[in-house]
């Protein structure tokens, strides 16, 4: 079952918690900018249902990335969770990217899950060297820790983060409930990430409200927003986030990576992303390019 998925979203309290107290330290260290960088997209480009909606109706699968990068300005690159990209793949991704587009690769599960960050030096070097070749098209990388990786393993995580090059932006996604169970544990974690100049992932998903910790360890937000396949709350939750982002931009948030998952097969993600873009432009004074969606053609009967 997908992480945090629930059968009935109507039973979930989707109210956004207040910002974590540690955020005040972030705001004290930065000046608000009139032009924050905002990257918004989904978790995949290879969805056949997008043909005729955000891709041309006759688009071939090998062309999907080309059209994706002309509709959105980032992607949560889950493909790298399952394999380290080859030089050919990197070259293809760079060739298809548009100005300002960023790929946000996930660390391979062979490193994060199979080896739990131990004895992974060779794999890490291979992954890091590969994604750094994306150059200006490389955005945030994110390290998704397995649900078994608890606070007792902080020394392992700290050593691993210290081993990564400074030029690699890394956001950590915590999933073990014990990171959040005691306030002092999470406070200490944020302090340590701040000291390491590393970022933290916020995940908004129905079945695990603890990972919606509303904390920052830098003036950079990495948000994974998991919707429920077009449920009405997908949009009311987006409204709440837009208002929170407005507040955070005013306080000093410099950059936001917003990964919008439609839920299920992500068929509903393009419409939801368009809604986010319009609301962000309207309420936060941004000038994000709207994806262009074509109305679905409904085939009528001849008789």
Give a written overview of the molecule.
The structure is a single chain. The chain is of the alpha/beta class and 303 residues long. Helix content is 35%, strand content 14%. The protein contains eleven helices and eight strands. The strands form two sheets. It has a six-stranded parallel β-sheet with strand order 1-8-7-6-5-4. A two-stranded parallel sheet has the order 2-3. Helix 10 packs parallel to helix 11. The protein is globular. The model has no long low-confidence stretch (mean pLDDT 95).
Brief account:
By secondary structure, the chain is of the alpha/beta class.
Gap between N and C termini = 43 Å
What is the radius of gyration?
19 Å
What is the quaternary state of this protein? single chain
H-E string: HEHEHHEHHEHEHHEEHEH
How many beta-strand segments? 8
Tell me the overall shape: globular
Query: Pairing-aware structural class of the strands and helices?
Result: alpha/beta
Main sheet: strands, sense, barrel:
6 strands, parallel
Report strand %: 5-15%
Strand order of the largest sheet: 1-8-7-6-5-4
| Low-pLDDT regions | none
What count of helical segments does DSSP give? Answer: 11
């Amino acid at each position: 079952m997908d992480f945090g998925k629930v059968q009935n979203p109507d039973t979930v309290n989707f109210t956004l918690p207040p910002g974590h107290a540690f955020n005040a330290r972030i705001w004290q260290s930065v000046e608000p900018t009139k032009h924050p960088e905002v990257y918004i997209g989904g978790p995949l480009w290879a969805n056949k249902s997008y043909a005729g909606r955000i891709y041309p109706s006759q688009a071939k699968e090998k062309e999907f990335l080309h059209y994706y990068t002309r509709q959105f300005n980032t992607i949560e690159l889950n493909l790298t969770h399952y394999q380290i990209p080859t030089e050919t793949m990197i070259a293809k991704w760079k060739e298809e990217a548009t100005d300002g587009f960023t790929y946000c690769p996930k660390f391979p599960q062979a490193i994060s899950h199979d080896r739990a960050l131990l004895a992974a030096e060779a794999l890490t070097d291979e992954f890091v060297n590969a994604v750094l070749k994306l150059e200006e098209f490389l955005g945030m990388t994110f390290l998704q820790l397995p649900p078994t990786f608890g606070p007792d393993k902080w020394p392992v995580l700290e050593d691993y983060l210290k081993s990564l090059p400074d030029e690699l932006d890394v956001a950590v996604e915590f999933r073990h409930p014990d990171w959040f169970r005691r306030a002092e544990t999470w406070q200490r974690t944020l302090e340590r990430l701040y000291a390491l100049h590393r970022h933290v992932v916020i995940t908004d998903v129905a079945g695990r409200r603890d990972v919606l910790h509303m904390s920052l360890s830098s003036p950079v937000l990495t948000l994974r927003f998991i919707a429920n396949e077009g449920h009405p709350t997908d949009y009311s939750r987006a409204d709440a986030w837009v208002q929170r982002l407005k507040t955070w931009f005013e306080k000093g948030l410099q950059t936001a990576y917003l990964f919008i998952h439609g839920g299920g097969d992500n068929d509903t993600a393009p419409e939801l992303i368009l809604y986010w873009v319009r609301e962000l432009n309207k309420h936060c004074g941004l000038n994000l390019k709207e994806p262009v969606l074509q109305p679905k053609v409904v085939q009528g009967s001849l008789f």
